[in-house]
Structures are given as C-alpha cells and as structure tokens.
Design goal:
The structure is a single chain. The chain has 157 residues and is of the alpha+beta class. It has one domain: Alpha-D-Glucose-1,6-Bisphosphate, Chain A, domain 4. The protein contains 4 helices and 7 strands, in the order βααββββββαα. It has a 7-stranded antiparallel sheet with strand order 1-7-6-5-4-3-2, with helices on one face. Strand 5 and strand 6 form a beta hairpin. The protein starts with a strand and ends with a helix.
Length: 157
C-alpha cells in the first residue's frame, strides 16, 4: 500500500503538539491549508470511534473515524466514505519528545496510506498519489509547525 510521510520538530511539549494537531473549527482553519471545514459527527471532542466530516479547500469530502486516540503520543484515522478514487485511506500522527540543541520539543510525524480505485490503474495512480499527497502533507506539516508557534492557536488549545 503506498504511503507518504512528513515530519517536523516543534519547540512545544508532546501534549501541546498533540492538541494542536487535533484542533477543529476556527482554530484548525487558522492553520490547516487543506481544510475548508471540518467538524466532529455526533461528538463534542475527538476520541477513538468518533467520526469526522472534512471538506477540502479543493472540493473532496471525507468521513473518517478515529481508530486510535492516545494523547499525547499518537492518533490514527481511517476513511469511511470519501472520494471515488480512494479504495482506502488512512492517516496518523506520532509525537515523540525530542530535544534539539538543548531545547526541549517534539518530533511530529504525519503519515498517509491509501489504495486507489480502480485497482488496475494503481501503477499510475500510486505515483500521482505519492507526488500529490506528498506535496500536501509537507505543506500541512509546515503549517502545523507554524501553528505550534502561533499564540492564538496555542491559546485555543
């Protein structure tokens, strides 16, 4: 199954990095360049089993479910309903305490995995997916790093 991964180091502790990664509403829209809107379905806060509706700025919608929610170390989601071209789609975050140059912080890793439809098109769609989703995940994790320095975002978590 193809995958793309991006990572960044941020100068906040893992619990703060985790909280920023799981923001919703106006706080999420402040930093995430991919999302037009996102909200939890029938829940007030994220957690294992909770579903989320996300609409991308470029149009596709996805309903996903938290399959893992382990603050402050990791979170995983899987697509329940989404764009026709994904047979499956999943994403996850990992947060590890890591000091750099004597500064305490967190190494954040974000990963997507997917399978494309139709399966016979996979040799081409996997290459396109690695390029397109790789570009997207790198932009999103860079924006996440900026959010970890934004007083308004940090004040909202």
């Amino acid at each position: 199954m193809p995958q793309v991964t991006a990572e960044v180091w941020v100068s906040v502790p893992p619990d703060t990095a985790f909280a920023v990664s799981q923001t919703t509403g106006e706080i999420r829209l402040r930093w995430d360049p991919f999302i037009r809107y996102q909200h939890l379905i029938d829940a007030d806060r994220p957690g294992k089993g909770v579903r989320t509706l996300t609409k991308a700025r470029l149009g596709p919608r996805m309903i996903s479910r938290y399959v893992a929610y382990r603050p402050p170390t990791s979170v995983g989601m899987t697509m329940e309903m989404g764009p026709w071209f994904f047979g499956t789609f999943g994403g996850g975050w990992r947060f590890t305490p890591e000091a750099r140059q004597g500064v305490a912080g967190t190494r954040a890793v974000w990963k997507y995995t997917w399978s494309a439809r139709p399966a016979w098109l996979a040799p081409l769609s996997d290459r396109i997916g690695r390029w397109l989703l790789g570009r997207e995940i790198r932009a999103r994790i860079a924006a996440f790093a900026g959010a970890c320095e934004d007083p308004d975002v940090l004040g909202g978590v």
